[in-house]
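writing this on my phone so excuse typos. first protein, seq and then structure
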Amino acid sequence: MAPLGYSRPALPSPIDVSSPPTTATQSTAQRALAVGGVLLLGMAVYGSSLGFGFVQDDRLLVEGSRLLPEVGTLKQALLRDLFWLAEGKARVSPYWRPLVSASYYLDHAVGGGQPWAFHLHNLLLVLLSGAAVAWRYGTRGALAAGLVLLHPMAVEAIANITARTDLYVALWGSLAVLTAGPWAALFTLLALFSKETAVVVPLIAWLAAPRGPEGRRQWLPPLLVLLAWALVRTALVHSWAVDAADAGHPTLQSVLTAPAMLLFYVQRLILPFWPTVARLPPDFPVWAGLLALFPLGRGLWLARPWPPA
């Protein structure tokens, strides 16, 4: 029961990607200026990555792969795990990321296997993501995108070629949350084809959506796509005969400690004492995961877009 005098605010409708939304307080010129600022900042900070070489998994999946020059192997690569490109130099993984695999073939064709083409792909992804946020939200979006670009934890995802999986999830996942209907389903699928962490997209879409039929158009298509993707991925991973220790299936222990893990990464976002995301988190006990549910639940409740009943 709402108190007397309470007027329920109007809830935003899903975004139609066919016509960019307008901002009441900012003109098109102002939003274009915000986009330009983000692009300049991104080039200033990460433009030098075009001169970088191959590091870490880049050497296995890109530099040392004899499959990328053979376009005929692309069809098989789309149905195999990501590390199939390493030609037996790494164990079979449960990582079905066909969009990422296809992007490696594209970059090799463009640059002849030279690292600059792969780094250019990563740079374009981060610039496109930042520009989309700046155009959608104007000055506020540009400030948010600038903070992400300047954050130390963003360095590895941009400078490390094989870490583009996170850039793809950020781009397609954001578009999935900002759209509805078939567009939301398409963007969710592209995010899931990039990295398994995109399984949270339907949850984020549900949290961001208004209540009612219009809201269901935002979170239901991503959820249906997620279920279909999970079925196909499970069949593929099973067909690859992935070792049980490498299958990546969640255990009861991992589920119960996930809230503590999430808080750990939130702390690293706020206080980035260790810039690389490769630093492994500690092994949390179950009680720590259960305890972390309280601040996480409270934070989600405060961030909800709908008013209390």
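second protein below, same order as before
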Amino acid sequence: MDQFRKWLGSLRFNPIGSWRIILLCILTATTFWFFNALNKTYTTSISQPIEFEFDAEGLIVVDKLPENVQVNLTGGGWNLFRKSVGINTKTIKIPLENPVEVRRMVASGLLSILSDELSDFQINYLVSDTLRINIQELRKQKFNLEIDTLGIDLAENYRVVSPVRILPDTVWIEGPKEILDGIEDPIKLKIDRTRINRNFDRNVEITLSVDRPKVFKKDPELVNVNFQVDEFIKETLRVPATPVGFPDDWNLSANDTLITIKYEVGKGRRDEIGVPDFNFALRFSDINRSDSTVTPVGVSYPDFIRLIPPKPVKIGKR
């Protein structure tokens, strides 16, 4: 009886050993199915590496050249599997005889090249039917530099009171000829500071308003820009005006020709101005007969002020 029980115990289910057997069976069946499946013919799309060959001397690649082309193939499972996982995948060389003149390659032009290299497959079609190419002649040109003075953002009542200097005032730019030809000379530089209220002396980057600015080389990249500013204030002054062309019988006195002028001047130069610096005229030919007024004309005055147009003054015959 004891021996019979031992025999029954030996037939009991062993979880660990049974799972190992089951997994081994599944692995064996899967392997068999996989190898059997690879013996069949399939159709799929793959990414085929390509490389363009051309003489690059004196040329520049403006847009990154395509490095892969999607090809729909029919072939044996083993060959397609090797292609898919990159085993023995060869980069196909595509020659460009005149790279500057070629801007695109269509499927028909690629099929013959690909067919020779993919002779183990039947090429059905190219998923990427057109490859864009942008290779241009490399050119270097010298440009003048200029500040966009209208774009200088000054604080309220401040003005530029000196020449705007750029050091150096030229730049060499190297890049694709077709885009380079469209750059205007001089190149306008922009000041990125706002509400400027003190003298400016900074390095400014030369920026190009063109497509694909990163393909260009600039020498130098930065230039020094400097100029002086001052706050302008309004001033009023009484100055004599010279009568011109008046008949002798008008008998104009000094008080008759004393006029009031208004102007704006930088704080730093306000003390440089006096009455002798202004020369105004009252022209008899300019008299408005309806109200006996005449507008003073500025003959000379300091060039560093902004003269506010004077108002007409009333003048009459004595």
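Confidence is low (pLDDT under 50) at residues 34-38. thats all i got for now
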